[in-house]
Amino acid sequence: MILKKLIFDNYKTFYGYQEIDLSIPKEVRDEEGKNIILLGGLNGAGKTTILKAIIYILFGKRGMSETEHKRLFSNVINNTFFDEGGRESSVILALETDSGEEWQLKAKWYFDQYKRLTREERDLIVTRPGSRMNKKAKIDNIEVYNKFIDKIIPYHAAPFFIFDGEEIKEIILRQNSSEMKEAIHKITGMESYTQLITDLKSLQKTFENKLASSANNSKIKKYQEEISEIDKKIEKLEAQKEKVDSEGEQLKNKLEKEKEQRNEKISLNNNSREKFVKKQSQKETELDLARHELNQLYKNNVLSIILSRKINKLQQQLNLENEVKRKRLIEETSLAPYRDFMKQLLNKNIKPPLTESQLNQIKELGQEIWVKENNIDINTSEGFEEIHDLSSKDQNILINYKAADKTLITNHINKIEKLERDLRELEVEIRNAPTEVDISKENERIDSLTKLIGENNLKLRSVNIKLTKTKNEKSEITNKLTRLSGKELNVEEINDQYKLLQKTISTMEEYIEEVTTMKARFIQEEFSSMLNKLFRKQDEFGKIDFDIDSYTIRLYNDKMQEISIQDRSAGEMQMISSALIWALTKVSDLTLPIVVDTPLGRLDSHHRQQLINHYYKNLSDQIIILSTDTEITSEYVKLMEDHSYKQYMLDYDEEKKYTIIRDGYFDFITE
Q1: CA of 106: how far to CAs of 15, 204, 432, 518, in Å?
Q2: How far is Cα 109 from Cα 120, in angstroms, rounded to an integer?
Q3: Helix (H, G, I), strand (E, B) or coil at 64
Q4: What's the rounded mean pLDDT across residues 453-477?
Q5: Quick one: which of 120, 155, 329, 530 has the most CB atoms within 10 Å?
Q6: How far is Cα 393 from Cα 397, in angstroms, rounded to an integer?
Q7: Is it the case that residue 484 has pLDDT exceeding 80?
Q8: Which of 584, 529, 527 is CA-nearest to residue 184?
Q9: What is the band of 86 on the pLDDT scale with cuts at 50, 70, 90?
Q10: What stretches of 535-593 adopt beta strand conformation (E)?
């Protein structure tokens, strides 16, 4: 993915319509090695505004509290424009996906006379490669929009690609959190492997059902005895699984109690956390209620939803049949006088007598003349087949029956997903919010219980593997049963497909295990290599480990003693986090741009030079650096000229109180 353009229309400090061209042609990136877009500005000129605008256009309110959202939109519209009578503000982000599609994401805001936000509108325009036509969609369902965006840049992966250079150390401090693990899973592509196995096993179950349904023969008894023995094994394993599940539930309950105790302790001395805790409880109650409502809706409406298309089709057919009957009755009524007349006429004694053929001709010709003279519509039901014979009462019931709308279910599912995400975000807020009380012991117990839950999950996984193996043995017996019968199902062909599917699943599981190990090793190697390039002291670390299960980095000194990452200086933690981003970028299945604000501000000259020489020029196909005048100093201008394709300066007018985006960069202008 490449960012192509960012357009401001009276947004914050940017007055009027201002555009930043961020595109870098592929031949420039490949042949000239230029991958950096440099935007410079003094503090307050709008660098952070650009970073946050990109994040908000992509992810909206996700990860943002109501207080933060309110603070952000208290001054979104440019002050000068507002004073002139303007009441609208917008941001457009244009990008190109890996498939070559061009997306234009637009957010527009409307304000009242008191500068209060009245509404927000979002649009998405998609243009396919080589096409002049585009598709435009107004975003009404933000949850659907979020899923759409997550396909190109997952929300939890964003901190690795769009970040404040001075806050990058938070990546390492949060590396043991569930959000961090989920983000790494998405970045490394492991999530798609897990989904593939799930889909294959679902297909396996379909084959098993087909094969099992065709088994009946004199040898069934023998196979049933074998299946009975396997069922005993399965029963024993399921009992073991239930026990492990029960232990897991107990650990989870203990974890919840520990969190409650910690939250109570926090709430005694910190109002902000008390609000978070209260909100967490409310969200949990809402989630339980939403799940209950979903179950009730599913039970009461699932049949109606499944049959909705059939019901609509039946209602259309019944309406057609009613219309045909009505027109047929009109036809019969209109022709009744003519038929009475012809009956009387042809009953007269005619000499010489007419043949049957002549009589029929007279009837047909007479009917044509009658129909024409009286404007009668006939043959309305010709070729139409009536297939229902229902009473009027039954017809009315079916025609007026209202099928349930599937959005009843999907809206509740979206609501549940949002509540679950809100709960995860609240847990992060509770953990990260400042407090005067010491909750380190509570956090240690929570971490310990989390580790035990992980071990319990491993036990559960082991039991599940044995259970799956035993069930596969049962499936093989079922395959033998299928050969005894089921000719109509073409059992041999299905059985061959089933065996092939089993081999595929086994191969995929082995592949995933090897790929996981390989990717973890690759992350470790890339992390170690980059860390040694960035640090001032060579051979700083004796050993660097990347834990496959917890997805965390561990550092050891030359005596193989573990080094606490949290005890490193802010600059060193920035280097460690940068090295982790480097490793994850190299192992990633995603091709994403990097947007970083003030990446060099807290670094000494050595670390700054190492970061420029070895890091940013090779990190991604597109690096957007937002810097102050003190970061890219004269000694680095030549390096930036060699590797930056475009340079902009955010020029803040102190008198007019707004920023103008100009070509060029501090020292680039004079040199």
Answers
A1: 18, 44, 32, 40
A2: 5
A3: coil
A4: 85
A5: 530
A6: 6
A7: no
A8: 584
A9: very high
A10: 543-547, 552-556, 562-563
Q: Is 484 helix (H, G, I), strand (E, B) or coil?
A: coil
Say if residues 505 and 197 touch (Cβ distance below 8 Å): yes
What are the residues whose beta carbons fall under 8 Å from the beta carbon of 40, sequence distance 6 or more? 626, 627, 628, 629, 632, 647, 648, 649, 650, 665, 666
User: Percentage of the chain with pLDDT > 70?
Assistant: 83
CA dist 600 and 164 (Å) reads 10
Pair type for strands 623-627 and 594-597: parallel
Residue 613 identity: N
Q: Sign of the CA dihedral 529, 533, 535, 539?
A: positive
Q: How far apart are CA 295 and CA 455, in angstroms?
A: 32
DSSP letter string, 448-479: HHHHHHHHHHHHHHHHHHHHHHHHHHHHHHHH
Between 183 and 8, the higher pLDDT residue: 8
The mean pLDDT of 288-306, rounded to a whole number, is 80
Q: Report the relative pairing of strands 594-597 and 162-164 from DSSP bridges.
A: parallel
The one-letter amino acid at 255: L
Rounded mean pLDDT of 448-462? 87
Nearest to 473 by CA among 236, 227, 205: 227
Q: Please, what is the Cα angle at 515 between 512 and 517, to 5 degrees?
A: 110
Contact assessment for residue 207 and residue 501, using Cβ atoms and an 8 Å cutoff: yes
H-run or E-run covering 2:
strand 2-11
CB atoms within 10 A of CB 122: 16
pLDDT > 80? residue 118: yes
Q: How many residues does the chain have?
A: 671
Task: List the structure tokens of 286.
Answer: 């809402």
* CA separation for the pair 242, 482 (Å, rounded): 31
Strand pairing report for 36-41 and 644-653: parallel
Exposure string for 273-311, b = 16+ CB within 10 A, e = fewer: beebbebbeebeebbeebeeebeebeeebeebbeebeeb
In single-letter form, the type of residue at position 193 comes to Y
Q: What are phi and psi of 8, to 5 degrees?
A: -105, 140
* Beta strand segments in 59-184, E: 88-96, 102-111, 117-127, 134-138, 162-164
Distance separating alpha carbons of residues 33 and 29, to the nearest angstrom: 5
CA distances (Å), origin 224, targets 212, 489, 523, 560: 12, 21, 50, 58
- Return all residues near 73 (Cβ < 8 A) that are at least 6 apart: 109, 117
